Amino acid sequence: MQLQPIISPNDKRKYHAFTLTNKLRVLVVEDITSTQASASLCVGTGHFEDPKDTQGLGHFLEHMLFLGSKSFPEADDFSEFINSHGGNHNAWTGAEHSNYFFNVSNDFFESALERFSSIFSEPLFHPEYIDKERHAIESEFRLKIDDDSRRVYQVYKDLANPAHPFHKFSVGNLHTLTDSKSTSLHTKLTQYFLKHYQSNNMTLVLIGPQSIKALSVLAHKYFSKLNNHSFPCPRPQVPLYLVEALATDTYILSNNHDHKLMLTFPLPEIGSVYHNKPLSMLNHMLGYEGRGSLISYLRQHGLANELSAGGGLQGYNYKDFNISIELTPKGMAHTDEITFMVFCMIELICNEGQNSWRYNERKHLQERAFLYQEPVEPLQYASYLAVNMHHYPVEDYIYGDFRMDGFDKDLSDYFASFLKPSNLRRFIISHEIGHTDKQANHYLTPYRVESIATDLLESWKNPSNVYGFSLPEPNSFIGPQRQALAVTEKQINPRVIYQKPGFKLWHMNDSEFNLPKGHLYLSLDSKQGCGSLYTSAMTRLYLHVLQDYLQEFTYDAEITGLNYHIYPNQGGITLHLSGFTGQQEQLLGLIFAKTQERNFVATRFEELKQQLIKHWLNFKQQKPINQLFNSLSATLQVNTYEPLDMAMAIKDVSLVELHQHISNFYKQVNFEGLIHGDWSEQEALRLSKNIEAILEPISELCSENNRDLISLKGKGSLLKHLHVNSSDKAVVIYYQAEQQDPAEIAKYQLLSNLLGPKFFNQLRTEQQLGYMLGVSYLSLNHRPGLVLYLQTNVIEVDQAASAIDTFIEQFIDNFNLLSEDEFNKVKQGLIDKLLEQDKSLAQRTKRYWSAIGNKDFEFSRKVKVAEAMTALSKQQLLIFMQSYIRHNMDRVMLIADQNLKPNFNWAAGSETITDVELFKRNSNKYSG
Q1: Residue 416, Cα to own-chain centre: how many angstroms?
Q2: CA nearest neighbour of 219 among 117, 75, 71, 346
Q3: How many CA atoms lie within 13 A of 597 on its CB side?
Q4: I need a labelling partner for 813 at 20 to 30 A (CA). Which of 453, 546, 632, 664 fits?
Q5: Could you give the residue ranges of the DSSP H alpha helices within 492-532?
Q6: Whole-model pTM above 0.85?
Q7: What letter does residue 837 receive in the DSSP assignment?
Q8: Spatial distance between the Cα atoms of 21 and 221, rounded to a whole number of angstroms
Q9: How many CB atoms lie within 10 A of CB 20?
Q10: According to DSSP H, which parts of 760-871 are helical?
Q11: Is the pLDDT of residue 196 over 60?
């Protein structure tokens, strides 16, 4: 009998692994709580298998597979079916694997699997879509041609061993995806599929509420027909880098205003020793952020802001160990000294850090994480497991990422021995690197490569701890594991357990997930912390400085699974704390104590201020469509502002001014919180008293702030233009609901789901107008809305706007052609999603907190929306569209372009927004 996966005792799902006669490995997962079913098929092939003369072919195949099969020949059949039944689908092509996945309402899982399996058993590869999808790949390539991560990655590829498959271009474009003299692209595609997409090279995961037996039957029925020709496809056993690539400096010119130092050490393949995790201690101690750490020293001396260790390329015969350091401008002038510091820390770790108690501490944390892991969405989980099945034996499909069998010092020392100067590849990435003499292929990234001077390498060979670094002490946050509390009273929803004017605390003790974990959302509205550009920007700066200050004190807690996030909201700030109960109160007390200290150092403050300004300035380098969505929020939400405006607002502020802002922030506050999970009511009340005692001496309690939203009622078609530094153009069109009741939410959500697949098929698949486009339900300040968007490099911005409006008009005109059956299927798919049970404690707490923000104190909004959607008829939705969703109705159109035509005026009589603040002052508002 085949081995079965090791699972956590707290995992209530059932698993069964088996292999079909065609050697397809299958894992079925019975999850009785789910109203949706998911599937993922992972192929053990990726762009490494691309022919050298047709690079990007694997990625191109991924696109073509979704465009029809012999049994279901229509190009949009699969996507229409999935979207019409409450689901989603996607795919990706990596270096060594390609993953395809979807979810759908349970009742339609078998029909979806029939279509899904046919993709891999009988794809059509419609010749008429070959050229269209070539242009789609080109659009995808162009979309990220200025993205620094892609630009830097291509330099890595160019510098790799030309005989190694990593050297290949993974995305593809019009230049690489072409016919050759002897072979058409269509033939190449077919040959690639027949050679590499074989069932013995695939894994399949099915997750649903169906029984193990029923899911197994579905796997046999629809996937046994997949071909298994067992073509051997060995990858070349050559090193990732040639010797001359070692002991080198590579200077890369970036687009962003960042400075990064990357130290990369090539290692042997490490996947075969996954059960020992021999790099875990190196990762931990080099990346440690507590006192005595490398990054703590770098921050104190103004040399760096962030450091991460242990990531890097990993594959069938290679592993890169990366130490990535985000430098300050001062640090850019001291890269040699910083590199020496890294070697000093490595030496300290090798001499004193590779020991059993540290390994066992890491092992304990891994075991605890495995034991009490929270479920994730079935779609995400299916994709994750399908990939794991290529890396681990059956028993470790789930446990493999957590497994640590025991400390092997010889093995740990072996891998650490590769972290030496002669094996170093150093990358300096900045917009200030001086001259360059090379350009990366495809992305044209300017760079230069130099050998590291021999005397410098020699100076790094004998490091000593001259900087006073120290290794982490035993973690004080690792205490006895608390067991989940016994629940004597089962609550249906959270309830207020303590309230007075300006202070309210909600609580609910979880009785379903039965984990020793909790989530706390604590929100402070401040009368003087928002309401203007200056105060909003200063509050952001305060949080940025505060979190940097806290990091050294809270890092031990974070690595034990106690996490916190402090973030701004439109009325003030919110603290979200999650993780194991027992130590949560300890962490919260530490955060509150350190928050009151305000021991910010002036030099560090200036560095952090410049870092935040740089982050906001870098927003101009983001994709045009992202800039438009941000601009939409800044235009309509009264307490939201453009990143560039916030950067200008704080550019000259001092630490004294920040301290004054902090004092002002706490003068008048409104507190509201939610405690959910393994917290008793007595514990929650004690915590509320502690919070109240902290606020009482420094704050006057007051009412919460309004979250005002600009009303578009009666404004007609508004226009806003954003200048972008990109050859791409983009359009965002937003329609706003007049009401925010469940019936209105139902209309906008249903319309989004009806429009989305057809919009994608028409403008992307058929017309090939762009790669980034779609239709989404968008709630701003809890008010329903609909947004249609398109980014393009093939047409002008006025043509893009026209294409969206034409689509809307045609959809409305042809709406009666939509059958009642199709309409009801889309409706039911959405209703199933709305009524789906929460999968995890985290998901449920987030839903409760969102409901509190919506003033949905009965926690019934989703149910009421589902009821309203059930009652919504096709005719009612048509009348709604005809009345509100047309080009001459109330809406905002935002356009992004390098150059706007002087006569651009999309709708007759439309108003152009040129001064956002003036527009906000003079507009009617919805109070929220």
Answers
A1: 31
A2: 117
A3: 15
A4: 632
A5: none
A6: yes
A7: P
A8: 12
A9: 20
A10: 797-813, 820-835, 841-853, 861-871
A11: yes
